[in-house]
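Field reference: sequence -> structure
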Amino acid sequence: SHSSDRKIAPLKPSLYLDFMRRTYSVINVTVKAGRHLSGNLTDKGVDSYVRIHIVGDKDHDDWVTYIRVNENDPVYNEECSIVVEKEKLYTFLQVSAWRVINARHVLIGMMSFPFSVINIQSKRLIGWFELLSPAIGRTSYK
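Structure field:
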């Protein structure tokens, strides 16, 4: 048998995120790291960044990390604070990872966290979260 001929299953791109509730209306989000962002072990590193967007919020610009160049498992360690007004508790915080290829921005994957999940008193949500396709990731993080 030729085991070397077997296709290696692509590794699932993921982000390590830390959501920390600071006060009733402020949530700190730290984008710590990414892994397998090229989607395949044999691929070279990618130029990537992470974007955070409040769905339905036209008042605030999206927050983005700096671009990490030529890395498959980048370390970001960047933090943003999000002020959550009461009416926003019914919306989602959308986290997406992007790669830059020849000045084009290509979506790697995304996930959405309902504020009702993040915004529980003294709750901390931390860990690796798999990046999902837009069809699923627009409303889910599982």
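Note: Strands lie at 14-21, 26-35, 46-54, 63-64, 68-71, 75-83, 92-101, 104-114, 124-130.
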